[in-house]
Every structure is written in structure tokens, then in C-alpha cells.
Inverse folding.
């Protein structure tokens, strides 16, 4: 019985009545009385047994309420079974609707509709409304036939009514197997059997952190811990896929970014329309959130399940217990029922208690959750590491906590943590059998990819994941991501195309495919995929931004600007779209507008990520204008904000990538000093990646010894950690050495062109180096051609303008050289005097104006 008074809520209402009871009463009172006695004997006990409550009996009719549509329908089937066996001619209707419940009676439209549609049922039959059918249609043991749209007296809309199909013995005619057995081969080559879900029965749900109301701050971790625990419990079921804003343990980086961009980084107090929007963008069928209250010794949870399609509340409940592990276990089962997971499946699927798959220790769980929150929200890796260390000390078999300890220690950039972190990942693997298979696959993946640095084994793990869960989207996305990071873009495109065949509703794959085609400069294919995404998601800002990016890369800057502006109109305070507009203004040579746009973007920053992005964009702008000192200042500000949300090791490594700017203002010693400072702050073997900085600084200063040192360091790192995305870095240094030391210009050009395919984000610098190779080879026509080709994409790139002007001069095309330098000096009208390329441009201008053109 629902104890709360005067509650408006969604309930399943079941109505029964005896067919032709009035006529029977008129013709045979004794028979009518026998019918009524049978009804009173059969129906009330069955309703109570099936988790319902009969709140009204009117003549020959009964009215009952259920929190679950599935419970209500199953109760109706059982009642009809008994009624048929006892020769009681009844009909039953079930509707899911909005009602007012005062604890004694239930009133409202939901009751009226259930009563009206009951008259549509034949003797011995059960009819249900469309709202009920939506909840039960994926039940493996339920089927129904539509009776069409029906006008309901007193209700302003038609209601589609369905007749439930069942046998006289109470069983359902249609039995559906929701999983199938598959044979897979693990990373060691062993064959194992596993259960794979059928696609049509899979439910995907976005779960938000819960709200917490209580004075005991020591229990606040439950607002994250209880939904996190539900996620882990739900992942035991192959029919459930989850999204939760947690990066490492539950793979929810996209969810985190959506919350962060909306200004709700912690996922708390998110408005209902935004929850619905995020759930839809994550392609979830449902979204769940709830409230947690502390009531004396008990923890009370009020979970709510909503439809992502229309934002309709489908289920709400209140449960309480002193043991929140039991609450999580019960809540997970309840949630699955109310998302339409078939009972026949729930009876068979593994559903171990949370204490078995995670830990029996509440203290270990608390330290685990608080450690995750400390790392994710406060970016306090030391504090998080200590909490997770305590967690694993309390329960060494806590596999997921060991995995978290590994990640936290690895990213902490603290040398003394590494031995314990390495032991932790081994412990996680040792006790991985406790976890749901999908979490086990995730841990295996990163064990090979990051801990062991074995990308081939990592790929085998993901392929095994795909084979065990062929109807699950996540492993396919993982495989495509591995290919993309390794520079295997064609392979990644093929996976995304397969995804779109198998999961045509995964529109995000159009975006991923579009971006990959853009990287390989297949712009028509990129546009085709971007437009397909826009067709499905015409009101999303990302649709316009994606098309704008393609036009920007093509060099169609005006079209790019138009689309960027449309994206900003939809998402009016998105600083990234403002930055994109500023980039097109810069590309068009509208420098005042560019600078103004960046200043405006700065005023819209909501979080550390926004400030990092805007200051980074300002740094790039000042570099373009030759104001290197100002560029460096903004880059330092950008990194200051980066370290407020980035893990420590990546923050330190990012500090080495802008140091070559110092070389361009004759401060090479400063660049090397700062490089050594950054290097000293990074633990082994990642300190070897200072070699990347040596290659960049050495290339700018033409210091062959520094480049050689950098190449060797990066090669040594790759022997320790074979990260595929870094395999091409030594080639960058080798190309510089071929040009500067060996004078093998053709070899350098070939290597630079290969690098351009792998590192598309470095196209500008690599193009400039290619032009320099041709120039030093005294092959000026190809140098000019490379420059002119670049101008089609970006006509205001100063350093490529300078290199092209030099090639024009040596090719005796003095007017074109003058045109280039004139344009360049306009861009650099306020450049730093000590900027070496500004000095070079002025000297070239002087020479050009003293050189006589050939007759």
C-alpha cells in the first residue's frame, strides 16, 4: 500500500468486471451472486500477491493500483487463468496513467481511461492501453494485438488499445529468447561460450547522480555512490547499457563533457529538460535520477524513470533500508522491470548482490567512491590515491577499486606511487572474475594498452568484446577509436560504417566518420556524413559546427563562418563556437574582428576548460600577428587553467609543446631551461617524452644535436610503452635531420608527407618544412606550388607566406614575392621587433625593392 497521502503519480490501474452481470442478475440472481462470491474469493488475494492493492469495488467491478505496469499485466493474466478455471466470465483492462492517490482512494484521468477501455474487452480477455504496451512490449513472455485507435468518452485524445494474447492456462502464446549463446576466442586464443543480447531487447539508460538531503556530510558520497552501484549491478544484465558521468571506471567521458559544457559538471540539480536533452544526445531510451534522504537509521531513496523520447515520468518509487547495498540490489531489479526487461529473462540472468561483485566492506566502498569524486571533481590525484589505497587495503579483492588505484597512480605523476599502481592493476586482473563482463573487458583493454603498452593485445580484447556483445554499440566504438588513434583512419571509417548498418540510430557515428574523412581530405565524403547527421538532428548546434569545420578545412572560410554563426545562434554561450568564428575571421584577414570575438568569448567562460580554450586561441592569434611575447603569456595562462582540470602527467607534458616559441624571439636558452624544468617534474619513463620538445626546439633552432637527442629519447620511450599514437614522432625528428644534417631533401620530404597523413593537426608546420626542403634543394617550383596549395586552405598563414615569398624571389618572380611580403608585413604590422621571422621579412622586403627584375 502506498503510504504517502495526496500524491499525484503515475500508476498502473487494473479494472475488472463480470461480463453481462446486470443481465445475469435479472435472469438468475443466484448465479449472479455465485459470480460475485467467486470474484471476491479470487481477485483480492491475487492482487495482493502480485504487489498490487485493490482500492475500490463497485458492484461487479474492481479497481486496483500497481507501481509496475508489468506486475499489473501479469496479475491480470493470473486472474484470468483462475477465472477460466472457475468458470467466472470476466474481462480486464490495464492502463498506465496520471492519478491522485490519497492512500485510500485513487481518482483521475488514468482511472477513467482504464474503466472506459475495459468495455472493449471480450469475455476472458485482457485489453491494455498503448502506454502499458510500451512498457511490456519487449517482455520475452508477452505479446499483444492492436485493436486500433479508440475514442474514449470524456478524454480529448484517442487511445490505441491492445488485446493481450494468452492461453487458457494463463501462459502467453509467444515465447521469445532475448539472448543467444555465442562462442568467442579470448586474447590468449582460448574458446569460451557467453550469452549475447539480442538488439531489439537492449535498453540503454542514462543515470544521473542523485540529489542528497541530510545533515550528515559523511553520507553525502551516496549521491554518487548509490547510482554508481546501480550502474555496476545493471551491467550484469546483457540487455542493459548504461551512461553515467564517470570517466575511467564506467567510460562516461562524453556524459561528463555534456554536463560540463552545460555548467553542471557534478551532475547535480540538472533541470529536467536538460536531463532529457542529454539523454537523447547519448541515444538512451530512458534516464534516471532520484533523491536520497536520511530518515533516522534508514536511507530512503526516491528513484524516477523517465522516457528520453518525450520526457514522460514512467515510474517512481520510495524505498528505504539501513543497508544501502540491499537498496542498490533491489533498486536495480526494480529499474529493470520498469524499463521493460522481460520477467522470463530476469529469472535466468545472473544477478549477484553488489557485495559480491564489488566489495562486502561499506568502508572500502565509501573510500572508493570518495576517491573517484576527489579525482574527478577536485583533480586531487594525491588525495584520491590515498583514499583508493585505503579502499584496496580494506578489501584487496575489490577489483574495480584496484583498477581505479592504477589509473589514479599512473596519472598522478608521482614516482613513488607507481609500484603500488602496477600491483593494483595486477590485483584488478586477478579478481576480474567478480565483475560484469563489460567492465572486465574495459579493465583488460587498458591493462594491455596503457599498463603493458601492448596495443596488439588491446585490439584483440576489443574484438573479443565485439564478438561477445555483437548487439552492443560500445565495443564497436572502442575498436574504431583504437584504429583512429593509431592513424588507421580507413579501418576506423569501416567500423563506423558497419556501426551505421547495425545501429542506424547511432547518429554520432556520422560525426565520427565525417571527421575521419576530413582528416584524410576527402571533403565530399565528410560533408555527406555531416549532412546525414544534420538530417537526423537539425536542431543541434553540433550539426552546423561539423559542416562549418569541413568548409574551414577546405578553405571555404565564408561558408564556414556562416555555419559557425548558426551553431552559435542555437548554443549562444558556447565559447568553442565563438573561438571557431574568430578562427574564420583570422583566416579571412579580419584581425580586429577576430580579436574582438575572442575578448567576447572570454566573458562567456563558465569553467576552467573554457578559459583554457580561449587563452589557447588568443595565443594562436598573437602568434599569427607576430606578437610572440603576448602569445607566450596567453599560452602560460592557458596551461594554468589546464592544470586545474587535467591530470598531472599530461599537464606537465603539455608544457613542453610551446617552448619553441622562445626560439623565435632569440631566447633558445630559456626554451631549453624550461624544457629541463618540465622534464625534471615528469616521472620515468614519461620524462623521455621531453624528447618531443627537443625535436621541436632543435628543429626551430636548427640544433642537430638536440634533435638527435630527442629522437633517441622518444624511441626509448616507445620501447617501454608502445603507444601507437606516438610511433610517428621519431620520424618528425628524423626528417629534420635528413634536411639539416644529411642534406637528403627528397628523403626528408617523403618522411614529412608520411607524417602529415598520421598527424593531420600538424599540417601547417609540416607543409612549411616541406617548402623549406624544396627551397634548400633549389627546386623552387614545387616549393611555390606547396605554398599556393596551402593558401587555398588558409590564405593568411604568415610563415608559409614567408617561405613562399623566398621561393618566388629565387625563382625570379619578384612581383609575386613582393605581393607576399607586402601582405605579410600587413599581418605583422605590430609584430615584436625581436621576432626573427619579422626581421627576416623586413630584410627580404628591402632586397626585393633593390633587385632588378629580369628582362
Amino acid at each position: 500500500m502506498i503510504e504517502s497521502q495526496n500524491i499525484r503519480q503515475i500508476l498502473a490501474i487494473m479494472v475488472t468486471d463480470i461480463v453481462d452481470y446486470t443481465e445475469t442478475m435479472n435472469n438468475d440472481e443466484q448465479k449472479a451472486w455465485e459470480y460475485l462470491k467467486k470474484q471476491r474469493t479470487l481477485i483480492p488475494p491475487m492482487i495482493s500477491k502480485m504487489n498490487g492493492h485493490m482500492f475500490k469495488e463497485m458492484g461487479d467491478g474492481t479497481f486496483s493500483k500497481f507501481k509496475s505496469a508489468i506486475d499489473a499485466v501479469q496479475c491480470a493474466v493470473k486472474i484470468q487463468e483462475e477465472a477460466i478455471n472457475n468458470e467466472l466470465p470476466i474481462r480486464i483492462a490495464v492502463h498506465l496513467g496520471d492519478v491522485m492517490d490519497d492512500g485510500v482512494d485513487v481518482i483521475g484521468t488514468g482511472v477513467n481511461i482504464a474503466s472506459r477501455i475495459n468495455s472493449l474487452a471480450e469475455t476472458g480477455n485482457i485489453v491494455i492501453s498503448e502506454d502499458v504496451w510500451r512498457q511490456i512490449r519487449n517482455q520475452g513472455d508477452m505479446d499483444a494485438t492492436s485493436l486500433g485507435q479508440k475514442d474514449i468518452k470524456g478524454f480529448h485524445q484517442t487511445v490505441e488499445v491492445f488485446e493481450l494474447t494468452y492461453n487458457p492456462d494463463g501462459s502467453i502464446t509467444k515465447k521469445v529468447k532475448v539472448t543467444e549463446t555465442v562462442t568467442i576466442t579470448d586474447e590468449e586464443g582460448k574458446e569460451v561460450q557467453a550469452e549475447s543480447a539480442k538488439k531489439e531487447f537492449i535498453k540503454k539508460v542514462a543515470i544521473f547522480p542523485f540529489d542528497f538531503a541530510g545533515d550528515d556530510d559523511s553520507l553525502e558520497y551516496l549521491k554518487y555512490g548509490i547510482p554508481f552501484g546501480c550502474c555496476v549491478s545493471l551491467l550484469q544484465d546483457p540487455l542493459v547499457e548504461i551512461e553515467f558521468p564517470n570517466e575511467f571506471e564506467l567510460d562516461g567521458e562524453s556524459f561528463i563533457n555534456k554536463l560540463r559544457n552545460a555548467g553542471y559538471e557534478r551532475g547535480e540539480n540538472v533541470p529536467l529538460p536538460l536531463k532529457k536533452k542529454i539523454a537523447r544526445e547519448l541515444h538512451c531510451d530512458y534516464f534516471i535520477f532520484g533523491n536520497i534522504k536520511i530518515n533516522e537509521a534508514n536511507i530512503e531513496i526516491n528513484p524516477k524513470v523517465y522516457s528520453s523520447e518525450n520526457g514522460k515520468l514512467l515510474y517512481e518509487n520510495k524505498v528505504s533500508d539501513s543497508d544501502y547495498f540491499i537498496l542498490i540490489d533491489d533498486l536495480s531489479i526494480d529499474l529493470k522491470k520498469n524499463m521493460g526487461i522481460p520477467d522470463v529473462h530476469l529469472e535466468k540472468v545472473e544477478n549477484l548482490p553488489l557485495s559480491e561483485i564489488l566489495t562486502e566492506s561499506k568502508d572500502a566502498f565509501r573510500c572508493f567512491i570518495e576517491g573517484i569524486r576527489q579525482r574527478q571533481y577536485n583533480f586531487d590525484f594525491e588525495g584520491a590515491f590515498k583514499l583508493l589505497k585505503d579502499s584496496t587495503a580494506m578489501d584487496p579483492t575489490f577489483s574495480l577499486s584496484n583498477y581505479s588505484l592504477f589509473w589514479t597512480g599512473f596519472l598522478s605523476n608521482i614516482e613513488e606511487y607507481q609500484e603500488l599502481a602496477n600491483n593494483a592493476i595486477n590485483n584488478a586482473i586477478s579478481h576480474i572474475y567478480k565483475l560484469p563482463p563489460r567492465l572486465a573487458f574495459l579493465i583488460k583493454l587498458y591493462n594491455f594498452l596503457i599498463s603493458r603498452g601492448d596495443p596488439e593485445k588491446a585490439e584483440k580484447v576489443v574484438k573479443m568484446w565485439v564478438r561477445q556483445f555483437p548487439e552492443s554499440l560500445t565495443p564497436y566504438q572502442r575498436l574504431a577509436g583504437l584504429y583512429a588513434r593509431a592513424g588507421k583512419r580507413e579501418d576506423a571509417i569501416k567500423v563506423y560504417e558497419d556501426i551505421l548498418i547495425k545501429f542506424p540510430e547511432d547518429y554520432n557515428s556520422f560525426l565520427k566518420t565525417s571527421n575521419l574523412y576530413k582528416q584524410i581530405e576527402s571533403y565530399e565524403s565528410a560533408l555527406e556524413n555531416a549532412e546525414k547527421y544534420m538530417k537526423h538532428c537539425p536542431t543541434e548546434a553540433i550539426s552546423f559546427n561539423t559542416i562549418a569545420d569541413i568548409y574551414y578545412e577546405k578553405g571555404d572560410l565564408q561558408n564556414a563562418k556562416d555555419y559557425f554563426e548558426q551553431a552559435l545562434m542555437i548554443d549562444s554561450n558556447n565559447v568553442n563556437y565563438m573561438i571557431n568564428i574568430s578562427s574564420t575571421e583570422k583566416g579571412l584577414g579580419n584581425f580586429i574582428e577576430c580579436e574582438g570575438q575572442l575578448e567576447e568569448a572570454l566573458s562567456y567562460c563558465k569553467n576552467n576548460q573554457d578559459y583554457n580554450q580561449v587563452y589557447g586561441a588568443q595565443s594562436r592569434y598573437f602568434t599569427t600577428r607576430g606578437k610572440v611575447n603576448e602569445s607566450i603569456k596567453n599560452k602560460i595562462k592557458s596551461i594554468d587553467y589546464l592544470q586545474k582540470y587535467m591530470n598531472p602527467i599530461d599537464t606537465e607534458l603539455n608544457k613542453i609543446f610551446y617552448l619553441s616559441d622562445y626560439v623565435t624571439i632569440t631566447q633558445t636558452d630559456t626554451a631549453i631551461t624550461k624544457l629541463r624544468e618540465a622534464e625534471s617534474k615528469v616521472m620515468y619513463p614519461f620524462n623521455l617524452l621531453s624528447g618531443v620538445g627537443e625535436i621541436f626546439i632543435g628543429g626551430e633552432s636548427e640544433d642537430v644535436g638536440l634533435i638527435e637527442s630527442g629522437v633517441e629519447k622518444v624511441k626509448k620511450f616507445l620501447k617501454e610503452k608502445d603507444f601507437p599514437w606516438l610511433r610517428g614522432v621519431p620520424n618528425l625528428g628524423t626528417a629534420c635531420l635528413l634536411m639539416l644534417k644529411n642534406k637528403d631533401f627528397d628523403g626528408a620530404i617523403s618522411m614529412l608527407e608520411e607524417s602529415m597523413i598520421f598527424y593531420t593537426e600538424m599540417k601547417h608546420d609540416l607543409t612549411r618544412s616541406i617548402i623549406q626542403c624544396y627551397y634548400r634543394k633549389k627546386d623552387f617550383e614545387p616549393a611555390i606550388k606547396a605554398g599556393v596549395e596551402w593558401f587555398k586552405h588558409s590564405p593568411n598563414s604568415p610563415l608559409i607566406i614567408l617561405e613562399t615569398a623566398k621561393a618566388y624571389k629565387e625563382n625570379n618572380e619578384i612581383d609575386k614575392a613582393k605581393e607576399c611580403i607586402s601582405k605579410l608585413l600587413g599581418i605583422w604590422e605590430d609584430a615584436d621587433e625581436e621576432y626573427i621571422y619579422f626581421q627576416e621579412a623586413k630584410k627580404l622586403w628591402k632586397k626585393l625593392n633593390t633587385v632588378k627584375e629580369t628582362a
About this structure: The domain at 197-354 is CATH 3.40.50.10070 (Rossmann fold). The two ends are 103 Å apart (CA to CA).
